[in-house]
Design brief:
By secondary structure, the chain is an alpha/beta fold. It is 46% helix and 14% strand. It is built from 26 helices and 18 strands. The chain binds zinc ion (ZN). The site of zinc ion (ZN) has 4 residues, from loops.
């Protein structure tokens, strides 16, 4: 592993943070923390932690010795000083004499001694960092170190490879008791500069930031070089590989439905040579059930995955039944695991959702499950990291990690679960697809659903708008012409592969041609039916079929128009397909109500948008002999209606679980267009 320390860059950090009022100690702590955080084989997604001991001034001008240690919710790769909350050091060191401290007391004591009460919670490993006398402490879950420790003779091997400055400690669950144990080691071996914790990771320490970081890279490199020299043979059974008849698209919505019976989940899917090889190892099933490579991975990927082997997949005639059965039997197995270890536990726990977080489909790929897309991607990355480390171990030795009991303690440790707890928003775990998403109404709708925690996919026909959106936002935005069935199929296939399914369709795209009905050409009228009727049918039909596969209920929402009930002069080419669309909306409500699929529409009028633009507004108001303002406010409430008002109507219909076959008007009040 390359040492990335760069003198000029370190000086830049010192200058930058000095200007912001921070001492050099903190500037260098931020610098080397980021160097560590950027190396995926050292830490992943908030794993690992670092600290610096320094002096800081309180508001009352008094100085305190403090330890600034990584705070919960921060990632080393982009940490800032605020992500390293300062805890007064003296009170922490006082507890070295204490034999036991409960988790609750530990957390509240740490919080009570924060210099700024608004800081994030300091790491669960704060005491360990504090008890080490060195100014800088770096801690990672390095792949190479774990590859050495997680094997039958791991401890002896580490003692062999590393010099006397490195001590190897047996596995002890993180928290106060581990900190006490480290304190004892330091008393006996004051000269050491690194500690390897079996099945967990490595700590390096020094009074200089550069040196502590250098030691980390040095020891990890020693481990890497040792591993490189080993002859590797990963016993993959190649000849039995059969390509599957089932595509991820056929399988993912079924999985999503089966895992989402209690909470809605988002999936990620991945396949590559590493994953396929891993599943085709002769001992695959064995080591998949051994546990995670480092304890805190268990909160993301559970202690064991669901593995569905090729015999089952190729022999089945009904993949749906197979998946549902396999997930049900996983749930049973997880419940048994929970009951077994909960019975042994002093404090009784509340079982988490028993669904698998990682599913291996032999010869097809790996599926991960999370409350949000980000969570499912984190689980995927962690599972892949586990594969890489286990593969490396298995090529020369046998994978061995902590016991199931220890994994259970970690999985149900309140301090680990606290890392995952976020306030849940109304639509978290739901996948929403909006067509015509980059128009005014579509975009306001995107913002509202996104704010409510949904994963939103945007479809739009305009290539340059799609490009512009992608530059600014990370949400999935697909160029799609909804009037072309093939284009719709392609977009929905991407959505399934990306998220595993969907829950809400907001079929919003449209186009408003005008003309006297006797004069309009057949071609133009047909085009309007393609744009304003068939486009909705293509999206609704494909969505409904996915919802049925998922068996999770769901909602179709159509942007209809007041033209559907109150046609305007010379607006036939637009109003006619919209009238058909209103019936389409009702037809879905009738045909699929028994599946729990709801179908509702919004009749909006006079919204300034791409369809009703400024030019059109001035033309129509002139024709009526009124000002544009009078035209826009010409309703019972005398108030202009905005795109955001339509977006709100979509949202309310989406969450009104007992409403289907309904049309909501958003027009400021217009009796002629109202339902009687
Ligand atoms: Zn750790």
């Amino acid at each position: 592993m390359k040492n990335q320390w760069n003198k000029e860059e370190s000086v830049r950090y010192i200058k930058k943070y000095k200007a912001l009022g921070y001492h050099e100690d903190m500037a260098l702590r931020v610098y080397t923390s980021r160097l560590i955080g950027r190396e995926n084989s050292l830490v992943l997604h908030g794993g690992g932690n670092t600290s610096v001991k320094t002096k800081l001034k309180d508001i009352d001008d008094s100085y305190h010795d403090v330890i600034c240690v990584k705070g919960s919710g921060w990632d080393l790769s982009n940490i800032e000083p605020e992500g390293l909350p300062a805890v007064k050091l003296k009170p922490l060191l006082k507890l070295r004499k204490k034999k036991y401290l409960s988790d609750d007391n530990m957390v509240s004591y740490q919080k009570r001694n924060l210099l700024n009460s608004k800081s994030p919670n300091p790491s669960v490993e704060t005491f360990l960092h504090a008890f080490l006398p060195h100014k800088y402490v770096d801690h990672t879950h390095s792949n190479a170190i774990l590859t050495l420790t997680n094997r039958a003779n791991g401890k002896a091997l580490c003692n062999d490879i590393f010099n006397d400055n490195v001590k190897v400690m047996p596995y002890i669950m993180p928290g106060f008791s581990l900190a006490l144990e480290v304190n004892e080691y330091l008393k006996n071996y004051p000269e050491i500069n690194a500690l390897i914790l079996m099945n967990h990771g490595i700590f390096t320490f020094s009074n200089s930031a550069q040196e502590s970081y250098r030691l980390m890279i040095k020891y990890v490199s020693i481990a890497e070089n040792y591993l490189k020299k080993q002859k590797s043979s990963f016993a993959v059974i190649k000849e039995r590989k059969i390509s599957s008849a089932f595509t991820p698209e056929m399988i993912l919505p079924v999985i999503r439905g089966a895992v989402s019976t209690k909470n809605p989940y988002i999936l990620s899917f991945k396949t590559n040579k590493n994953i396929i090889d891993f599943m085709n190892h002769s001992r695959a099933k064995y080591y998949m059930n051994q546990g995670t490579i480092t304890p805190d991975h268990v909160i993301r990927i559970k202690p064991f995955p669901l593995f569905i082997d090729r015999e089952k997949i190729t022999k089945t005639k009904n993949i749906r039944k197979l998946i549902i059965r396999e997930i049900a039997s996983y749930r049973k197995r997880y419940e048994n695991y929970f009951n077994e270890f909960n019975a042994k536990s002093k404090i009784k726990k509340h079982m988490l959702d028993s669904c698998p977080n990682i599913i291996y489909l032999q010869d097809i790929g790996m599926v991960s499950v999370g409350q949000t897309k980000k969570d499912s991607m984190i689980a995927m990355d962690i599972a892949e990291q586990n594969i890489m480390v286990i593969k490396d171990i298995e090529s020369t030795s046998h994978f061995k990690t902590i016991t199931k009991n220890e994994l259970f303690d970690m999985e149900y440790w309140s301090l680990e679960q606290a890392k995952l707890k976020k306030q849940k928003r109304e639509l978290e775990g739901k996948i929403v697809v909006i067509t015509g998403a980059l128009g005014k109404i579509g975009f306001e709708t995107y913002k509202i659903f996104k704010n409510q925690g949904a994963e939103v996919v945007l479809l739009d026909v305009c290539g340059s708008s799609v490009k512009d959106f992608r530059k600014q936002y990370s949400d999935l935005c697909i160029k799609c012409d909804v009037s072309e069935k093939k284009s719709v199929e392609k977009a929905f296939s991407t959505i399934i592969n990306e998220y595993g399914g969907l829950d809400i369709l907001i079929s919003n795209a449209g186009n408003a041609p005008q003309g006297m009905i006797a004069d309009i050409s057949d071609k133009e009228l047909k085009k309007s039916f393609d744009d304003n009727f068939f486009s909705h049918q293509y999206c609704a039909s494909i969505t409904t079929n996915i919802l049925i596969q998922q068996n999770t209920k769901g909602c179709l929402l159509f942007n209809i128009s007041k033209q559907s009930v109150n046609p305007g002069k010379s607006f036939g080419p637009y109003g006619l397909p919209k009238a058909a669309l209103m019936n389409l909306c009702k037809q879905y409500a009738i045909d699929y109500g028994s599946f729990g699929i709801r179908s509702n529409g919004v009749n909006a009028d006079r919204i300034m948008s791409g369809i009703l633009n400024k030019k059109m507004i001035s033309k129509r108001s002139k024709a009526r002999g009124i000002s544009t303002r009078e035209y826009m406010e010409g309703n019972l409430l005398n108030k202009e209606v905005y795109a955001v008002d339509v977006a709100k109507a979509f949202y309310h219909l989406a969450i009104s679980e007992k409403t289907t076959g309904a049309i909501l008007t958003v027009d400021g009040g217009n009796i002629a267009a109202s339902f009687r």
